[in-house]
Every structure is written in C-alpha cells, then in structure tokens.
Design brief:
This protein is of the alpha/beta class. It is built from 35 helices and 23 strands. α15 packs parallel to α18, α20 packs across α23 and α31 packs across α33. It binds zinc ion (ZN). Zinc ion (ZN) binds next to α31. The site of zinc ion has 8 residues, from α31. It comes from Micromonospora chaiyaphumensis. This is Pentapeptide repeat-containing protein.
C-alpha cells in the first residue's frame, strides 16, 4: 500500500471524489460544497524511498507546485518522513505556493477535541473522563492475573500484556481481543488503565511523527447521546463527542483497517443484548477481504454474557478465528497481599490478619471489589464485629450503609431530614429507573421527584434543592457524561439494589415484580438474582415463585430470570417437575446436580444449555433443540432420557468428548437398549451440510439470526461434504443470493424462507428443499432425510 493509495482511499472515505491518475503521484480531489461550489484538494505523494532521493527531487517538486499555482483549494505534500527536505524547500513550499508538508500521522489522524487540554481540567467528554480515571487507577492498581482461554496460559497482569500487544508495530493474527470477567473483577479498572496507557503512548508517537494507533474508546455513555442504543449510532456519537473535525463512519472504518486507530469497547453488555446488528457491524469490518492491515479491537464484557447472550455465542461460533479470548482470574492470596500493601500501606497487616482468621472472607476477597470494600473498613477502623460467616450481601449492605454514614458526617445530608431508610428507598428506586431506561443514566430531575416523596413537606425551596443535589452526588452514583444524568458507580451496588427491590415487589406487587424481571436477561451469576433468591429462601416461598413462573410463560425474559432464581432454591428439584418448561427458551442456562425424572423440556430451546451432574432418567427432551447442548457427568443416565425423534438435534457435547454433530453417532452412544421403538430422523451428508448452512441464518429454534453473511463465515465450520457445493446449490434454488462485490450472501425474503426455517429447525422437507437436495446430493438414489430405526440404521 503506497502513500498515494492511502491518500486516495482516505479522501474517498471522507466523501471526496478522486479521478484516476496515471502517474500515481498527485491526488486531485473534489467534493461538492454549498451553493454549487466545489471544494478542492491537491496532495502530492512523491514515491521517494529515502531522504536523499527526496532531497534530489526538491527542484522538480517546486516546479510542479508552480504549475499548479492557480489550482484552487488546500494543497499538501504528503511524505513518509520530512527527513532530507531542506529548510529552503519547506519555506518556499509554504510561503510561495501554500503547500503544507505532512507526514501520515498528521494527515490521517483524527485528533480529539481535548488532545491539548491538561488532564486536571474539570468536566469534559466521556473519553476524557476515562483518561482521568485511568490515571488515578494506575497509581493504585494491583496486577490483574488472567488466563488465555483455549491455551490455558496464565499471566500475572493482563494490563501489561494488552498494552504490549496494542503498542506492538507487528501485524496481529486475530483482530479481536475479547476480555471476560465476572462483576467486581476490575474490568473497568483494566479498561481505563489500558486506555490511559495507549493514549499517552500514542501522543508520544505522534509528537515524534511516527505512525501509531489512536485508541478510540466506545463507552455506554454514548448511548444517551446516540440516535438509538445501537453500535452504529453510538460510533457516530463517539466521533461527534470526541473528535475535533467532522469524521463519519467510513473514515472511522478506514482508520481501523489502515493502522491509524484501535477500537476499545467496554461496558456494552446492555447494548449487545438489544442491538441485533452489534456483532454484524464488527464482523463486517474484520472480515473484509481487502483489509490492508488487521484491525485491532478490544471487547470487554461480563463473562456471564457468554451464557445469557445468544448473539455473542453465535458470533464466537462463526468468527472464532478472529478472536483471542482472555479471562480475568480471581485474586489468589499473594495478589490480596499486594493489594493490601498498595491500598493500606502500613495498615496492611490489619486486613491480612482478619482474612487469615476468617477463611470465608479470604474467599470473598478473591473478588477485587469485595477486597476493596473490606480494605475501606480497615482504613476507617471499623473492623470490630465482623462475623465469621460474613456474606457478600452483608458486605455490600454495610458498604452502602458506610457511604450514607460518611454523607451524614460530612453534613451534606441531615439524618433527621432524610432518614437512612428513606435514602435507601430513593437509591433503589434510582436503580430501577436505570434498569428500566436501558442504562442510559437517570435524569437528575427524576431523582428530584423521587426525593419529593421522602423530604419533609415544610422544607424551604433552597433547602429542598440542596438536599436533592446532595442525593444526586451520593458516591453510589457517578455523573453520566450527558449532563443532568447520573448512573450507578458500581455494578455490584446497582444489582444489589435491584435484588432488594425485586424481593420487595415479590411480596407485595406481582405485576411490578414481573415487569422488573422482564427488563433484561440477568446472567446466572447475577448478584441481583442471588439477593432475590436468598430472600425467597428466607420466606420459604418456592411454591409462590413457581406460580410467578407459570404466569410468566408469555414474557421470555421474566420467565428466564424467575427460573434462574428457582434453580437456586434448595427444593428446586421438587418444584421443577411442575415448572412449565416446554417450548421455552432455556438457551445458555445451567441445570446442576438435579434429578430430572418427570421434568419436561419438550420442544424447548436448549441451545448451549448445560446439564451438569444431573440424573437424566425419565426426563423428557423430545423435540427439544439440541445445539451445543452440554451434558457433563450425566452419561450413565443419559440413555434413559426420552429424546423423541431427535428432530431438533444439531450437536451435543458430552463430558470431554469432541462435539457430536451426527445424530446417528449420538444414538449409537446412547446405546440400543430401550430405544428400538423410537425411530429418529436421519439426514444424508448433503442434507446435514445444508442444515448447517441454513443455521447460519436461522436459529435452531426457528428464530431470526441474520440476513446476510460473508463467504468465509458461510464456508467455515463443519464440513461433511464440500460446503461450497451446498452453498451454490442453495443459490441456484433461490434460498440465497450472492452479492459478489462484498463477497456476501443474503437469504431469501420470499416464501422460501419458511421452508428454510422448517428445515433448519427440524429437518422438514418441502418440495423446494427436496429439489435442492436432488440437485446437490451426489449419492445415487439417496432419499436425503429419512425416519430411521436404530435397528435398520447402518453404522460404519
Ligand atoms: Zn442425499
């Protein structure tokens, strides 16, 4: 890629039109402007390999500048380095011909509005705030141990590793780094520290006029500024908020694919859950066949998103070759010791001796957030009376209490004006408001309205205002970057409040309870669901919860959340038999250590569902979608479950075996005993390959997955027969349409789509499908999809 090509493609991304140039040295760009005027730009990109050659060409260049003296518009000389250019030449270029001399990082970079602002400046944009947080975090950060998923390699500090990776000049093998961590593991600390490091190094490189990647952070803050809470509009919001000149998405993508920007995404779990095009957007960028350099993208998510979000799982299945995954690990005692030293200096022994005496607390401190809460108590000298069985819920409850204490002490709020109970009430209502408005932050005037209910009616207006203001400034909140909004500073406290509120609604207001739990799918390890579960256990209200579950069958999100709470109850085995699980979406859930006799999963979506140490005898799984469904330590009783005709079989994983993707292999593994009377549906190799192809557009439960996919994605994955021949067959039969320019294929929007769904879901063969298989299958006299009896089936 020459400088000339870079300049042309860059200007095209900015909406300039550039007619072809034979010599490939001068870019003459034109762009329509207001009132029939055109904007012009001329860029000389001399192919000059070194300083000496460039120096020799000075006279010729000046002559060219003179020839173009009458050409309107901005003029640039773009060179890899200004070395070799004489002072005289530079002076003449600028003063006689108005030609600015630029190196690539000057010409192509998109500077931030605040690049030259000092760090201490108050307020500012989300990225500026991020940088400031990163600076603070760096001073007291404990190294964050991690594991490289897939290789099992363990490292002592992910920040060091990522910073090295993102700053390395060498090409990356894989464009996406995925970092997963449970809540409270310091993902945000890692992210802000990394951004600060990369940004500082970038500015250093830019000052030295070296090529470098500008880190562009995409944060949830932009959702409130975007036209919709989706990735594309959020990129627009990022560019408008942070970048000094008007830059649009094509230029943003140009920078990503040409080595001028890296893209860092954090805290977008809610956006991912709502934006069906989220991963398509990223995939489209990384999978372009003509990317000159490998993009560099960091995606940080809660680890639970892997189980709660189908889109992420789908993406990893299709695009796994683009992704490298790292997982933050819990702190081991040596990390906790390091943390204590950094956080408490000479008081560190005080914390460590408490932890040594109470193993339960040492375990809690494996989660950095909890270690911080305990350290705070040590710092404040409030360590008396911590019970041995101190739980995470007690810890968080006491932490919120301590926050209120400090506010009362600072006299920001008076306890006789707003009581602790009332303050907690406002805080948990704010949590609900944040949950219900998709984490866009809660407007401060809404908090004012909530405060109205608890403030004494005889308060003067200025006093009232002062109190509301103090509530908005409580350290449990932080200002969202859009002014006049706040959001929760810590996920754990936010979820705790949601759990408390849900428990209250459970007792008194079934409608609000169901609404609250229908807001978003909580992950299985969610603190909110654990708080709720603990409360229901105290109330021994399992039966009542089962009633709520039964009335939530039409609201899949609430159903899923309530079911997860039910699974945490001690008597859940007994309750599960009566749970209406048939035809529900149970994808990604885990059933652990349960006897499942009499439990019916008939027709349910069990995609990526995990059964762990369950007794499967007498469990009904007929017509269930089995796709990446895991059975760990269930094998002895697996054959005693009822799998029906296995029409929903795509793949299962059993213990440490490689995934089973052929239904006949699965039937064989289950053994012949007791299954003779059950025929199962067996596809021929071509039919199986076709189903895999269709499953890239349709989910195994028949729901929409995507409209189009690139060729690489379509041909990747399992090959039973040549996937290209099946792809071409599907195109000939009108199920897919090729878009040759983008090397993508689009699914049909005609009535053939119903055939596609039926075949993907349970191998239903319609006349159109039959003729496609006739056309593609190479087996003489094949009937493609047949009902087989195990006794008549032939296994090799
Ligand atoms: Zn066939």
């Amino acid at each position: 890629m020459s400088l000339y090509d870079e300049a042309v493609t860059f200007l095209e991304s900015e909406g300039w039109s550039v007619p072809g140039e034979l010599r490939g040295e001068v870019v003459r760009a034109r762009r329509a402007a207001y009132a029939d005027n055109s904007e012009h730009m001329t860029v000389w990109c001399p192919a000059a390999p070194d300083a000496e050659e460039l120096h020799r060409r000075e006279a010729t260049l000046l002559q060219r500048f003179a020839e173009e003296a009458r050409t309107p518009g901005a003029k640039f000389l773009l060179v890899e380095s200004t070395q070799g250019l004489s002072t005289d030449f530079r002076r003449l270029a600028k003063h006689e011909y108005n030609v600015d001399i630029r190196v690539p990082i000057q010409f192509f970079d998109a500077r931030f509005k605040w690049d030259d602002t000092s760090v201490s400046a108050l307020a500012g944009t989300a990225a500026q705030q991020l940088r400031r947080d990163g600076e603070l975090a760096a001073r007291r950060r404990t190294p964050q141990p991690f594991e490289a998923v897939g290789t099992g390699v363990v490292g002592s500090d992910l920040l060091t590793d990522l910073a090295r990776r993102f700053d390395s000049p060498g090409a990356w093998d894989r464009p996406i780094v995925l970092v997963t961590a449970p809540a409270g593991f310091g993902k945000s600390v890692l992210f802000e520290s990394l951004f600060e490091t990369l940004y500082t190094n970038f500015q250093k490189a830019k000052k030295q006029l070296r090529r470098a990647y500008r880190p562009l952070p995409l944060l949830p803050d932009y959702a409130a500024l975007a036209s919709a809470p989706a990735l594309g509009p959020m990129v627009d919001a990022l560019l408008q908020t942070e970048v000094a000149r008007p830059v649009k998405q094509p230029t943003f993508q140009w920078m990503l694919t040409r080595g001028f920007a890296s893209w860092l995404l954090d805290g977008l779990d809610e956006v991912i859950a709502q934006d069906p095009g989220f991963f398509e957007y990223i995939h489209e960028i990384v999978a372009r066949p003509d990317n000159p350099t490998t993009p560099r993208i960091l995606l940080c998510v809660r680890d639970s998103l892997l189980s709660s979000n189908q889109a992420l799982r789908d993406f990893l299945a299709v695009a796994h070759e683009y992704v490298e995954e790292f997982r933050l690990l819990p702190w081991r005692p040596e990390s906790i010791r390091t943390f204590a030293r950094i956080r408490l200096q000479d008081k560190d022994q005080e914390l460590l001796s408490i932890l040594d005496a109470k193993p339960q607390l040492m375990k809690l401190c494996g989660t950095p957030y909890y270690a911080e809460l305990l350290a705070e108590r040590v710092a404040e000298g409030k360590t008396d009376g911590i019970p041995d069985d101190y739980s995470e819920m007690d810890l968080v409850y006491d932490a919120v209490d301590a926050i209120m204490d400090r506010e009362y002490k600072k006299e920001q709020l008076q306890e006789n004006v707003v009581s602790r109970h009332d303050l907690l009430d406002v805080i948990s209502h704010v949590a609900v408001a944040e949950l219900e408005n998709d984490n866009r932050g809660v407007p401060t005037d809404e908090i004012g309205q909530l405060a109205e209910f608890v403030l004494p009616s005889d308060l003067s207006d200025p006093e009232r205002e002062r109190c509301t203001d103090a509530i908005c400034r409580l350290p449990v909140f932080r200002a969202a970057s859009e002014r006049q909004r706040v959001r929760f500073a810590q996920d754990v406290i936010f979820e705790h409040q949601i759990g408390i509120r849900a428990a209250q609604y459970f007792a008194v207001n079934p409608v609000r309870f169901a609404q609250l739990l229908d807001c978003r799918p909580f992950p299985p390890d969610s603190f909110a669901l654990r708080v709720l579960c603990a409360r229901i256990r105290e109330l021994a209200a399992g039966e009542e919860l089962l009633t709520r579950l039964a009335s939530a069958t039409a609201t899949p999100t609430a159903f899923r959340n309530i079911l997860q709470v039910l699974l945490g109850l001690p008597d859940c085995a007994r309750l599960l038999i009566h749970a209406p699980l048939e035809r529900q979406d149970l994808s990604g859930l885990t059933f652990s250590g349960l006897p499942l006799a009499g439990v019916s999963f008939r027709g349910a979506n069990l995609e990526s569902t995990r059964f762990n140490s369950c007794v499967m005898t007498g469990c009904d799984l007929s017509d269930a979608t089995l796709h990446g469904t895991r059975f760990d330590a269930c094998l002895p009783t697996l054959a005693e479950a009822d799998f029906g005709h296995l029409t929903g079989f795509v793949s299962v994983e059993i213990d440490s075996r490689t995934a089973i993707e052929d239904v006949a292999d699965f039937v064989k593994l289950l053994g012949t005993d007791g299954r003779r009377e059950h025929p199962f549906v067996g596809p021929c190799p071509t039919a199986l390959q076709l189903r895999f192809l269709f499953l890239k557009f349709v989910r195994p439960d028949g729901h929409y997955r995507r409209d189009s996919l690139d060729e690489k994605g379509l041909l990747s994955g399992r090959r039973i027969v040549d996937p290209a021949s099946v792809l071409n067959g599907a195109v000939r039969a009108g199920f897919l349409t090729a878009i040759p320019k983008r090397r993508r294929y689009e699914r049909t929007h005609s009535q053939l789509y119903a055939d596609m769904v039926g075949f993907a879901q349970n191998l239903r063969v319609t006349p159109a499908i039959r003729s496609l298989l006739e056309d593609t299958c190479r087996v003489e006299g094949c009937s493609h999809v047949v009902q087989e009896n195990l006794t008549s089936a032939t296994f090799d």
